[in-house]
Amino acid sequence: MGIKSSRIKIRLITDADIPAAIDLLTRGYGPTHVGTVRPRGFWEQVFSCLSRRPLPTGDFPRYGYVIDSDGKLVGIMLLIFSTIWQDGKATIRCNGSGVYVEPSFRLYASPLIKKAFNCKDATHLNVTPAKYTFKMIEISGFVRYCNGVFLAIPLFSRAPKNNNVRVIDVNVEPDAPFDPHERDLLVQHVDYGCKSVWCVTPEWAYPFVFRVRHLKRVPCAQLVYCRDMDDFVRFARPLGSYLAQNTGRLLVLLDANGRPPGLVGKYFPGRGVKYFQGPYRPRLCDLAYTEISMFGV
Q1: Which residue from 232, 247, 277, 283 puts its CA 20 to 30 A from 74's CA?
Q2: To the nearest 5 percent, what fractions of the chain are helix, strand and coil?
Q3: To which H or E segment does residue 99 belong?
């Protein structure tokens, strides 16, 4: 049966769709994929993670949307909706991930993407765009907010002016004030496979989340959450010492729009470019609840 006589609809992904969705994504991100190949086991872990994580209050998809042709899945877009707290205010953020449409149904890719981004109150992120898609992303209304990445050697940074700084695991209760929403974020990201820590001063406990990974076979830790990049710069040396002792990583990768003052390392423009669309411009070094922090992409 041809496309014209098929019954095509774009609908929510259900639990019953998961096996077929995994089949579709495994084909789409297989040996012929222009980017990184993703094996079936990767997508099984993705759906396992999405199935058990809490959703924001409201009517939000747990998994995303599919293109359904007479009951057969021919296209898919995974979505990660999350509640992000900024200055005591809850906002909604959505990270699109895992997009694939079978070649003979590519004319339905645009309606699929439009359906995924129809939540106007949410800030939508594209944190892993392929270079050849930059112009298309910008034409569709997305704004670039991150132009590159910085590979830092935090142990070479200056020691904090206040020597009374301790880095502790998130499972240890800080003996300083902290934001309970940030504690929830740290705990949840441990479940995603991240390393979450507090950097504790007498005045406040500062949250940090790292994803241990390899950058072209070079071991490093990617900074996926902090309140402000200045916090990482301020506490770079004690954080670097903690990471070296507990993860074996001497290098930290972080989002940047240039060389951050106070850090030793190298800036790579054009790498790790990121876009957003919506009411709230994301902060650099805030990749909480994205495919990077949750799935290790």
Answers
A1: 277
A2: 30, 35, 35
A3: strand 89-101
pTM assigned to the model: 0.90
Q: In tens digits, what is the pLDDT along the chain, a chain of 297 residues?
A: 445 556 899 999 999 999 999 999 999 888 766 567 788 999 999 999 999 998 988 889 999 999 999 999 999 999 999 999 877 788 999 998 888 999 999 898 889 988 888 877 899 999 998 888 899 889 888 999 999 999 999 999 887 776 789 999 999 999 999 999 999 999 999 999 999 999 999 999 999 999 999 888 889 999 999 999 999 999 999 999 999 999 999 999 999 999 999 999 999 999 999 999 998 999 999 999 999 999 987
List the chain domain ranges: 8-121, 148-269
The residue among 181, 177, 172 whose CA lies nearest residue 54 is: 181
Triad 176, 264, 293: Cα angle to 5°: 60
Is-contact 232 262, C-beta < 8 A?
Answer: no
- Distance separating alpha carbons of residues 152 and 156, to the nearest angstrom: 9
